Every structure is written in structure tokens, then in C-alpha cells.
């Protein structure tokens, strides 16, 4: 078996800011803090004896979750008690004396090593020199990526409909966003190729994409399209930033025939191959930056994520983190690491498998309600196979007042439907809130309207109730 190649050097894509960063001399000096031969009088590190926290203790469900994950434990065998002390007790724990101290901006080695092994199991990056660096979730990771690779006035690529916080982050950093054409699966490679072949001016350095369970559309890009887009990235020399908080919320295809729904029999051994290939797993050159997070698989408030990238670029992220976030939360690192070490790699994948089952049930419930209540005379949708969102397209031209009131501004009709829904008691988000407008071309406004819903945030009865209200709103607006 041949050795994996080294990454292609992509440091020519670094921003002026990133190129100008120097290693923190104080951080370099901290390596002597734990040297028993040296009395350290140089670092502003308080003694752990003065930390008021002697230990933290949390309870969790214990692997292998035989009764599922939406249950209360019935016995001690189903309950996992995790206690992290100030001083080391368990070999793989991050003691509070370490996690609550100023530390390595890349993250505690115990947690980084766990994530590295997890990354090898799931993605097996096909080049040698890749690294993990912890973040405060994907939002911070994206902001850090923008600062590391772009200068004010640069243009980046993103899906035509994308996560509004991500686009706002880019705009507030002075970037222009060129929208890439999508369908309900995701980016259309042929359209991206055409867009770049006719590009005028400096080519963009980054493609920002949410390829799995896309926010807002819920679409999941096939392996074949990812391979095609990766080849385009090689041809036009840009970096793919895959923002993947929903990657493990993948599901079987939806069927409205409840009797045809089968039990998901995925196991630890078959789980990696049940997932759509990530860009990282296709990356032979180190031109993919993967943003990953525990927000959607453990808890959003953990504010703990990580970046996977080639070593040359990880070093630049590290320099930036040293003077911005310093390090991800010590409490979060100790608690999450304590949980994962006790679950182990197999237990964590057991959790992800059970999470997949739970989201599949919620997705099925949502789509059952959409099928029952949303009028097909004016609406269309594709059932998502990942994530927590569904995307409904409505033909605005069939509205009785479209020609006289909304044809010149279809987004006003989206807003009217949104406000009607709020009045009647349901919140569905208008599609134009996520739309990236093409500043280079002007075209007639489309009569296609879109609404994003989620099946993750409410109970199944509320889900059914809310979608019935939304269906009634559409019927009332369109006179059905």
C-alpha cells in the first residue's frame, strides 16, 4: 500500500493579516512552565490552588443506549457519572488544574487525539499532514477562516441560498459573495464550472458550502457532485470550506408509505460507509478546510468545535487563535472529553447512530404532515436525507393577486405569508432571508417562493399542529 501524499502548499491563499502574524513569544515561553528544572516567574498563570472549582460532575446516558436516547435511565447500568477533579485521576481526563488554566490554543491533547482518531475512522483523509485545532464552534471557525484567507474587497463563492449568519459574517468582513446556482440537492457542478470559466478579475480563493443537510434547503450533495466540484477546485485553485454541523444527522430516504419504512440497522462497522463521502475524504491535496462541531450532536451551548486542515494552514489558525479566542472553554473541554473518553470511539458512534434514528423519526413526522396539510396545487418539496430542515417551494404566480400586487416584488408575498403565519401561530422562515443576490447580473424576479422549516425544535404533536396551520395559511392566501 503506497504512502499517502503530502498536502499541496496553499499558503499563497493566505490573507495579508494571516501572513503578518508572528508566533506569540509569551506562548512559546509557556512551554517552560511545566519544566521541573525551571522556576517560572515569567507567565501570568494563577496557581490552580486558587481556582474555586475543586471538581465538576455531570451525568449522562451510558453507551450502548439499548433503549434509545430519548429515555430516562432506569438503572445504574444506563447512567454514566462523570467526575473531573482539579488534579489528575483518570489518565485520559483533562483535570481542572489544566483545563481552567491558560493552555494550548490548539486544544487539550486528550480531546484533540480523540477527535483525530474519530476523523480517521469517518473520513480517513487521503493525505498525510493534516491537523486538528479546536474552535468555539463553527461560527467562530468561519470568522477565523475569513480572516485567515481573505482581504477586504475579495469575493468568495457560496450557495445561492445559505446560512444567513455565515453570509453576514463575510459581508461584515468586507467580502463580496458570488452566488453559485443550486437545485434541491445542492451546488450544480456544471453551473459552477461555467461561472468560473467566464469569471472576470481575480478568481475567488474560497468556496463556502454546507453540503450535508444544507441550511436552509435541507439538501445533501451526492458523492458524485462532490467529486466533480473538487476537480473544479483543483482546476481553478480555490479552497473548499465545508461547514458540516449536520453531517451525522443523515437518514434513509423518506417514504410516505409507513408500512414500507424499515428499521435502520447501521452498526459501528457499517456506519462510516452509510454516510455520504465528505469533501475531506476526497481531498488528496489539502485544499479542503472542514469545520466541524458538537453543537448538533451533543449540545449547542458546549461551544466546542474543530477545524481539520493541512499543517501549514493549521499553524496560521493557531497564531490567530493565540491572540483572539486564546483557547476553547476549559469547562467544555473537560466535560466533553470526559464523556467521550468514557464512551470510547464505539460508544460515540453508537450515540450518533441513535441520534440518526431519532432525527429520522422527526423527519418522517414532519414530511407526513407536509404531505397531509400543504397544498400540492401550489407547493413542492423534496424530503431531506440529512440535517434538521425542510424547504418548501411555492409557485407565487398562482396567487390571485400576483400579477397586480406581487409580480415586481415576489419577496413581498413571502413576507405576507410569513406574517400571516405568525398571526395564526406558526413560524416558517422566508427563503429570501437566505438568498445571496448576484450583484453582477440583474434578472427578472422569480415567482418561486421558498420557506424553511425545522423538525428539530418541537415535539411531534407541535410539529403536526404547526404544519397544519402553515398549510391552512397557504390555502387561505391562495384561495384554495
Automatic annotation (TrEMBL):
Transmembrane segments: none
Lineage, uppermost ranks: Eukaryota, Fungi, Dikarya, Ascomycota, Saccharomycotina
Protein name: aromatic-amino-acid transaminase
Annotated GO CC locations: cytoplasm
Obligatory cofactor(s): pyridoxal 5'-phosphate
GO biological process terms, semicolon-separated: aromatic amino acid family catabolic process; lysine biosynthetic process via aminoadipic acid; tyrosine biosynthetic process
Family matches, as PANTHER family: AMINOTRANSFERASE, AROMATIC_AMINOADIPATE AMINOTRANSFERASE 1
Ranges for domain Aminotransferase class I/classII large: 101-468
Family designation: Belongs to the class-I pyridoxal-phosphate-dependent aminotransferase family.
Enzyme class, first EC level, given as a word: transferase
Annotated GO MF terms: 2-aminoadipate transaminase activity; aromatic-amino-acid transaminase activity; pyridoxal phosphate binding
Keywords of the record: Aminotransferase, Cytoplasm, Pyridoxal phosphate, Transferase
Domain of life: Eukaryota
Main location: cytoplasm
InterPro entries reported in the protein's UniProt record: Aminotransferase_I/II_large (IPR004839), Class-I_PLP-dep_aminotransf (IPR050859), PyrdxlP-dep_Trfase (IPR015424), PyrdxlP-dep_Trfase_major (IPR015421)
Places the protein is found: Cytoplasm
Catalytic activity: an aromatic L-alpha-amino acid + 2-oxoglutarate = an aromatic oxo-acid + L-glutamate
Cytoplasm in keyword set: yes
SUPFAM superfamilies recorded: PLP-dependent transferases (SSF53383)
EC identifiers of the protein: 2.6.1.57
Pfam family name, one: Aminotran_1_2
Species for this entry: Geotrichum candidum (Oospora lactis)
Amino acid at each position: 500500500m503506497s504512502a499517502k501524499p503530502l498536502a499541496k502548499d496553499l499558503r499563497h491563499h493566505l490573507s495579508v493579516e494571516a501572513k503578518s502574524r508572528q508566533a506569540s513569544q509569551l506562548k512559546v515561553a509557556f512551554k517552560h512552565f511545566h519544566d521541573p528544572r525551571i522556576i517560572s516567574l515569567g507567565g501570568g498563570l494563577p496557581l490552580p490552588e486558587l481556582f474555586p472549582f475543586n471538581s465538576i460532575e455531570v451525568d449522562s446516558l451510558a453507551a450502548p443506549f439499548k433503549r434509545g436516547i430519548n429515555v430516562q435511565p432506569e438503572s445504574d447500568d444506563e447512567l454514566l457519572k462523570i467526575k473531573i477533579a482539579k488534579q489528575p485521576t483518570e489518565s485520559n481526563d483533562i483535570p481542572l488544574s489544566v483545563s481552567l488554566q491558560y493552555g494550548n490554543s490548539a486544544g487539550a491533547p486528550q480531546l484533540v487525539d480523540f477527535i483525530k482518531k474519530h476523523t480517521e475512522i469517518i473520513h480517513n483523509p487521503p493525505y498525510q499532514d493534516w491537523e486538528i485545532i479546536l474552535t468555539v464552534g463553527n461560527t467562530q471557525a468561519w470568522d477565523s477562516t475569513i480572516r485567515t484567507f481573505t482581504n477586504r474587497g475579495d469575493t468568495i463563492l457560496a450557495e445561492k441560498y445559505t446560512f444567513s449568519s455565515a453570509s453576514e459574517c463575510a459581508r461584515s468582513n468586507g467580502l463580496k459573495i458570488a452566488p453559485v446556482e443550486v437545485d434541491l440537492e445542492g451546488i450544480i457542478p456544471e453551473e459552477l464550472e461555467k461561472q468560473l470559466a467566464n469569471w472576470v478579475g481575480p478568481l475567488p480563493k474560497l468556496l463556502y458550502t454546507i453540503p450535508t443537510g444544507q441550511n436552509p434547503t435541507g439538501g445533501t450533495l451526492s458523492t458524485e457532485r462532490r467529486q466533480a466540484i473538487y476537480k473544479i477546485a483543483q482546476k481553478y485553485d480555490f479552497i473548499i470550506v465545508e461547514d458540516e454541523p449536520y453531517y451525522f444527522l443523515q437518514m434513509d430516504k423518506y417514504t410516505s408509505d409507513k408500512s414500507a419504512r424499515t428499521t435502520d440497522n447501521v452498526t459501528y462497522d457499517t456506519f462510516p460507509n452509510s454516510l455520504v463521502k465528505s469533501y475531506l475524504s476526497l481531498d488528496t491535496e489539502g485544499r479542503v478546510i472542514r469545520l466541524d462541531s458538537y453543537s448538533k450532536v451533543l449540545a449547542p451551548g458546549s461551544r466546542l468545535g474543530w477545524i481539520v486542515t493541512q499543517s501549514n494552514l493549521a499553524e496560521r489558525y493557531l497564531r490567530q487563535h493565540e491572540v483572539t479566542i486564546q483557547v476553547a472553554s476549559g469547562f467544555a473541554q473537560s466535560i466533553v472529553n470526559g464523556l467521550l473518553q468514557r464512551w470510547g470511539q464505539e460508544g460515540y458512534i453508537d450515540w450518533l447512530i441513535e441520534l440518526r434514528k431519532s432525527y429520522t423519526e422527526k423527519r418522517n413526522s414532519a414530511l407526513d404532515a407536509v404531505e397531509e396539510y400543504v397544498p400540492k396545487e401550489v407547493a413542492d418539496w423534496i424530503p431531506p436525507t440529512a440535517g434538521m430542515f425542510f424547504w418548501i417551494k411555492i409557485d407565487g404566480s398562482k396567487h390571485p393577486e400576483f400579477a397586480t400586487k406581487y409580480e415586481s416584488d415576489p419577496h413581498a408575498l413571502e413576507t405576507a405569508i410569513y406574517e400571516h403565519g405568525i398571526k395564526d401561530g406558526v413560524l416558517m422562515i422566508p427563503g429570501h432571508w437566505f438568498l445571496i443576490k448576484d450583484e453582477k447580473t440583474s434578472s427578472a424576479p422569480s415567482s418561486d417562493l421558498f420557506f424553511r422549516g425545522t423538525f428539530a425544535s418541537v415535539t411531534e404533536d407541535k410539529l403536526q399542529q404547526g404544519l397544519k396551520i402553515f398549510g391552512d395559511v397557504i390555502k387561505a392566501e391562495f384561495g384554495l
